[in-house]
Model the fold of this input.
Amino acid sequence: MALKVYADRMSQPSRAVLIFCKINGIDVEEIRVDILKNKQYSPEYKAINPMRRVPAIVDGRFKLFESHAILIYICCAFPGVASHWYPSDLFKRSKIHSVLDWHHSNLRRGTVGLVFNTILAPLNGFPSNPQAAKEGEKLLTRSLSKLEDFWLKDGRFLVGSSQPSIADISLVCEIMQLELLSEEDHDRILSPYKKVVQWIEDTKSATAPHFDEVHGILFKAQKRFRERMATESVKNEVKSKL
Done:
């Protein structure tokens, strides 16, 4: 029986789970939960995840939500998963948990705060919050500095590993949300962090071709958003000259 994955590919954690399943050849039935249409609030989905967030999985009678918990479950429940994703060594495993816990309160909060209040809120009819966007960017840059100077200081991948773990997929998918920003803002924020940029490329390579395939919807949204921003910029420039 296929593992049911309830996901929206515009969601960073959803992408992480889907990529991981594809890399490891896990038979998956992907069920889209369109969060922009509030499908996560349907009674049917609430029965699967009362928290009304994506992703969630159903494996037989077993239901689980929260992407980090899902990734750990898959590593333990499916024997074909390579050990480097979630090593049996207690010290290595604990370090992975440390990164994942740090992610929620730092990198994720910063990315969501910036991208939602800069791009997603105004484009979807919600009021923007410039102060929240500013605070999100501050937290994001602090988080990128920690990645550069601490989490990536001893190896190609997180916590000194020579191969990626579930933490690498989770955090890189988070950073990919910055693709929705203007090209100028994206490069301004990311380019100072050379190790981070290389680590993103290494993680993409380690998860190819599934990484780009799952991110396809994000790349399409990026093109659409940047075209709209360029059009609005021209309109504002014309107005300023009138």
DSSP finds eleven helices and four strands in the chain. The longest strand covers residues 3-7. The chain has a mean pLDDT of 94. The first helix runs from residue 12 to 23.
